[in-house]
Each structure stands twice: as structure tokens, then as C-alpha cells.
Amino acid sequence: IKMHEDSGKEFTMVTCSAPVNIAVIKYWGKRDEELILPINSSLSVTLHQDQLKTTTTVACSRLFQEDRIWLNGKEEDITQPRLQSCLREIRCLACKRRSDGEADVDTAGLSHKVHICSVNNFPTAAGLASSAAGYACLVYTLSRVMGVEGELSVVSRQGSGSACRSMYGGFVQWIMGQQGDGKDSLAQQVEPETHWPELRVLVLVVSAERKPVGSTSGMQTSVETSILLKHRADSVVPARMKEMIEAVHKRDFTAFAELTMKDSNQFHATCLDTYPPIFYLNDVSRRVINLVHRYNRHYRETKVAYTFDAGPNAVIYTLQQNVEEFVQVVKYFFPPETNGGQFLKGLPVAPTTLSEELKQAIGMEPMVKGICYIISTKAGPGPRVVEDPSEHLLGSDGLPKESA
Ligand code: DP6
């Protein structure tokens, strides 16, 4: 069972990677801060790890004096409550397995300390929610080191709510659950990533002046002050979840896209209904919203959808056949800086020409440098073990390698 581990008596090391997910029915608001239990269910698309992922190495050794963690090259405080929750819960699962009499379980993690090293393959400065991939990867890697199975999404949920959805690939729902202990508040795959291969995702990284209010404190203020949020959670989301699951099952892009945009808009309306109000969308975000609606109106068809999380970046969902033209539209209306890196990263998109008719129908004044770059991607699989030992982020001394 020590398959993925380095052999050697006093050292166990495992490296895994985990994906980012982008919600199409948003999670916003907790009923329990400590356990991270939400006031409504949510649904997301797991993005492909070729473009966006977190990689984590966990080493476990009797020689380590204490638990330690390095994130993107910098040592961080391991005593943070959310990190402690994940470590405690995984050790608890390992302990249960041992007491259940499973002799093959490697229980070294119970008495031994761990060193954790984690990196993202995308810049943190891009303002992409990295906590979901980060906690999903941490929990998945710890579970492999300690040889535990079980409901891992319940564990990663306690690191960051949205992280529970990154435990699966494709289309994933987080069922809010009813119990006080949170055992029924877990993620479930609705459809695998292979279900809808034509679906494509564009992350439009918007240049932001300052760091927005974090989701944790933002949603706390919303729960305390917004009656619209209460109405949303009680009376809107339950029906929307059903419709969204149906749209995904049927690969009904129009239904999927309209629900996605409406749910993003309602989430941002609850932010505005929060007192004092929270603004996540900026001028560029609102231009993207207008652009999408004008594009769809021109074709009298919902070909493109937007969604926004707790920041100004737009995430676009569309189908393969529309990607080339829509990317060209974005380039035209948000002309990139000519110096500096590539404007389009990720899956290749061929350039195309836009008709004058389309440009006129959209009829907006181009805005230079509004969007820094585009990451082109699609739905992808859940966490995985990285088998190649040269990919370990920790060296044989248990400390981060140069590159990590
Ligand atoms: C707007 O999962 O980051 O992205 O549970 O406090 O860690 P915590 O919050 P987090 O919130 C994500 C909010 C969102 C919507 C979503 O992903 O569903």
C-alpha cells in the first residue's frame, strides 16, 4: 500500500495536485462559522489542472519536531484554525481506521509530525480564488500520506467552504446538509468532465486597483445584514439547484448560461444589499457584462455567459464553436498592452476576423488595458497523485527545494 511513497524507513512523502472550481450557483453565507456549514447548496465546474492547479507535497517523519507549512515559497503559520481543523480531521479518520483493525493502514501520521509544501501554477496576484484548490490539495495529499479514505469533502470543507467542491472533477454540487455536526454537508459529482466536452471556460483577469473584501468576512456581514440573502438562500437557490442540475444533465447551454448569469447577478445584489455594501465588480467587470449581453442579443441566442466571484475577474462559459470569435471580441474591446507577456494563455485559440456588423452591434468604446490576460481552459478532473518523485516539492531533508 506504500505505492506512491518514497521507500525509506523514517520518511514518507506524497505529492498531489488539485483543481480550482468556479461556482455557477454561488455559495455565500454560513450557518456555522467553525464547521463551515453553508446557508444554501451550490454547484460548480471544476477547471482543468493543465491551466490552473495547486501542487502539494506532504512529508511525514518521526524526525520532525513540529508540523510546518510553506505556501508559494514562504513559511506560514500552521496554527491557523482552518489548517488545524484539516490536520485534526484527517488524523481522526486515520485513527478510526486503525481502531477498526485495518492493519495495512500507515498510521505514522498519528504520532509523526508533517511538513507541507504547496505551490500554485498561476500567480496569486491574479486574484483567482486559490483557497479552494489549496485546501482540496492539502486534504487529498494528507489522506494519501496517512492512508485514509472516507468523506474527504467534509474535511476540505472545514478548510474553505468552496474547497469541498474541488475534491471532484467535472460538475459538482455541495449539498448544504441539515445536521448540526456537518457530516451531511458534502460534495457530490453531478457529471464527470467528459460529459460536456464542448464546454469551454475563459478566465478574464481584470486589472484591479486594490484587494477586495475577503469572502469569509464579506459573507459574514451579508448574513448579519442582508434580508435579500436570506430570501435567496431560502426561496431562490433550492429551485435553481434543481434547474441547474437538469441543464447540466441535458447539456442545455441556454439554460445553463442564463441560470449562471442570473445567479452571479443575484450574488452581487446581495453584496450591495449588505450593510455597509460590498462592491466586488468594477468598471471593467460591468463592461464585460454589457459586452456579453450585446453579443448574445446580436445573435438572438445565449452563446456566452459570465460569472463573478468575490473580485472583479470575469469567468466566461461558452461552447467550443464560439470561443474563437468571443476571444477576438474581448481582444477588440479590451486591447491588450503590446509590451509584456502573452494576452492569451492556456488552451490555444486561433485568431479570427470580426464582422463590422458585430462590432457595431456591440457598439462600445474600446478600453485599453482593462483586461491583463485571458486563461483559456475547460472542465477537468479532480485531485490526483503525482507519481514522479522528481516532482516532490520537499527535499530528502524535509525542507522545500529551491524551486518550491
Ligand atoms: C464567491 O469558500 O472562499 O467564490 O468558506 O469562508 O473559505 P470560506 O469562503 P470561500 O467562498 C467562496 C465564495 C464564492 C462563491 C463560491 O465559490 O461558491
Report on this structure.
There is one protein chain. This protein is α+β, with helices and mostly antiparallel strands. Helices cover 34% and strands 22% of the residues. The protein is built from 10 helices and 17 strands. The protein has helices spanning 81-99, 108-111, 131-145, 152-156, 215-225, 227-250, 253-273, 283-299, 320-333, 356-362; strands at 12-19, 21-25, 30-32, 37-38, 42-46, 53-61, 68-71, 74-76, 113-120, 171-175, 186-191, 199-206, 304-307, 314-319, 344-346, 371-378, 384-385. The strands form 4 sheets. The chain has a 6-stranded mixed β-sheet with strand order 8-7-9-6-1-17. The protein has a 5-stranded mixed β-sheet with strand order 13-14-12-16-15. It has a 4-stranded antiparallel β-sheet with strand order 2-5-10-11. α10 links the parallel β15 (344-346) and β16. α1 packs parallel to α3 and α6 packs antiparallel against α7. The chain starts with 11 loop residues before the first strand and ends in a 19-residue tail after the last strand. Residues 1-7 have low confidence and may be disordered. Bound molecules: ligand DP6. The site of ligand DP6 has 15 residues, from α5. Ligand DP6 binds at residues 23, 26-28, 36, 42, 129, 131, 160-162, 215-216, 309-310.
